[in-house]
TrEMBL record:
Binding site for heme: C449
PROSITE patterns (UniProt xref): CYTOCHROME_P450
Organism this protein belongs to: Linum tenue
Name recorded for this polypeptide: Cytochrome P450
Record InterPro entries: Cyt_P450, Cyt_P450_CS, Cyt_P450_E_grp-I, Cyt_P450_sf
Membrane topology: Single-pass membrane protein
Keyword Translocase: no
PANTHER family, per database record: CYTOCHROME P450 83B1-LIKE (PTHR47955:SF22), CYTOCHROME P450 FAMILY 71 PROTEIN (PTHR47955)
Homology family: Belongs to the cytochrome P450 family.
């Protein structure tokens, strides 16, 4: 494995020596137009790739930024990269120069799985992206629509509570990681597509879980073509392209089935159109400013399902993990929800959630320490000035949300500690709507996550009921300090190992 890796890394150097640019004068003139920020020394051709741990790049970049400053430059293979690691630099990227930095760089895995970049998350900024975002917000993500769909969230959370009760009665550990993915996926499918719970159709649950895992793996795999365009063939030699094609075929089959359900004239009609109804109708009547195809619609299905499921599930698992490691915060959150709701009601509804400031502070503190997306990725589409440096087009820019959330200049000497009280001392907008750049768990500017309200509604309601209905303990033979905090990256940052806990019924 390692000899092959070193051989592959050495191959670009050989190619570079064989194919040097002939017009040195022109190359030097072009580079002299720009002034890039400081960064670590890089090796010929491969740049700084060996200095970045691919499994935890946000941590590697944070460590480097402590040496080279809040805005540093790197070269990852042939790709020029800037990393913003402070709230001030995040504001420049996400607000001041948002228009110049509002597109996304094309990457092999993402391009394939997003139907060649025609989805909402990875499509370039332009008319198509604006129209699709508007459609999704109006028919799914706006606050009124999210509130209208509250009964769906309540129904699915009640089902989870029943499962936890059964696990408690049988005195066996409850796998919160699997349960939260299932819950979030079902809620998203019902709200966005009027699709029933995939748990109700036997093996469909395992199929969907496999789709999510496979897609996440492809989004974060190392493709040589992303960093060394001339070495595109290496991805085929390693078998990565074959795995990507297989994952795409499985994902496409799921998306096609979802679209076909909405194309069926005998389909059960619902009171409100879901977002897929609107897209299918737009595709059929040609009312859009551009011609929608089935692939456009399937790309949006992929986005809503994968991203919507992933973010809420990861946030819930991390929140319960931090509460288990911090029993004082757990007791305080449970006391709050039980006092507000009372013992007789039996279920926390979304009106009750509005009266739970400490629970919301717990969620914020979790997202500060473990943001769903630790690195926000943008690409410059024109010359712009960041931190006094002139940045050329086609420069990839990462905003290190993980580093900003642990910055001692913002959060104090206890920035690494889990202390929800800091948000009670510093009250503000519950949702951190991309305007307060000391914490941007949902991004900011034009590319801010449109599903923020939906995601938080799922997280708050589920967490409140888990804390209200049960006391939580470690499985036999385990202590709280045994809980690991290892991560695995995908579209979002998941806990690597499943969170399995014992639930003791409170009510």
């Amino acid at each position: 494995m390692f000899p092959l890796l070193y051989l592959l890394l050495a191959l670009p150097i050989i190619l570079t020596l064989l194919f040097r640019p002939r017009n040195h004068k022109k190359a030097n003139t072009t580079s002299s137009r720009y002034c890039l920020p400081p960064g670590p020394p890089c090796l010929p051709f491969i740049g700084n790739l060996l200095q970045i741990d691919g499994s935890i790049p946000h941590i590697s970049l944070r460590q480097l930024s402590r040496v080279y400053g809040p805005l540093m430059s790197l070269r990852l293979g042939r790709v020029r990269v800037l990393v913003a690691s402070s709230a001030r630099m995040a504001e420049e990227v996400l607000k001041t120069h948002d228009l110049a930095l509002c597109t996304r760089p094309p990457r092999a895995g993402q391009q394939k799985l997003s139907y060649n970049g025609i989805d909402l998350a990875f499509s370039p900024f332009g008319v198509y992206w604006r129209e699709m975002r508007k459609t999704c917000i109006v028919h799914l993500f706006n606050s009124n629509r999210v509130q209208t769909l509250a009964p769906i969230r309540a129904q699915e959370v009640r089902k989870v509570m029943e499962k936890v009760s059964k696990s408690s009665f049988e005195s066996r550990p409850f796998n919160l990681s699997d349960a939260m993915v299932s819950l979030a996926g079902t809620i998203v499918c019902r709200m966005a597509f009027h699709k029933g719970s995939y748990e109700e159709v036997g093996e469909e649950g395992s199929r969907v879980q496999g789709l999510i895992n496979g897609t996440q793996a492809m989004f974060t795999s190392f493709f040589f073509s992303n960093h060394f365009p001339l070495l595109w063939f290496v991805d085929s030699l390693t078998g990565l392209n074959r795995r990507l094609d297989k994952t795409f075929q499985e994902l496409d089959r799921f998306c096609q089935e979802t679209v076909d359900e909405h194309l069926n004239p005998n389909r059960v009609k619902h009171e409100h159109d879901d977002v897929l109804d609107v897209l299918v109708r737009t595709m059929n009547d040609g009312s859009s400013r551009f011609q929608l195809t089935v692939d456009h619609v399937k790309a949006i299905v992929m986005n809503l399902f994968i991203a919507g499921t992933d973010t809420a599930a990861a946030a819930l698992v991390w929140t319960m993990t931090y509460l288990m490691k911090n029993p004082t915060a757990m007791e305080k959150a449970q006391e709050e929800v039980r006092q507000v709701v009372g013992r007789d009601k039996g279920f926390v509804d979304e009106q009750d959630v509005k009266q739970l400031p400490y629970l919301k502070a717990v969620v914020k503190e979790t997202m500060r320490l473990q943001p769903p997306a630790p690195l926000l990725i943008r690409e410059s589409n024109e010359d712009c000035i960041l931190g006094g440096y002139t940045i050329p087009p086609k420069t990839v820019v990462h905003v290190n949300v993980y580093a900003i959330g642990r910055d001692q200049e913002i959060w104090g000497d206890d920035s690494e500690e889990f202390r929800p009280e800091r948000f009670m001392e510093k009250p503000g907008d519950d949702n951190k709507k991309g305007l307060d750049f000391d914490m941007v768990p949902f991004g900011g500017g034009r590319r801010m996550c449109p599903g923020m309200h939906m995601g938080l509604a799922i997280v708050h309601l589920t967490l409140a009921n888990l804390l209200y209905g049960f006391d939580w303990e470690m499985p036999s033979g385990m202590e709280r300090q045994d809980l690991d905090m290892e991560v695995i990256l995908g579209l979002t940052m998941h806990k690597k190992n499943a969170l399995c806990l014992m639930a003791r019924k409170y009510l």
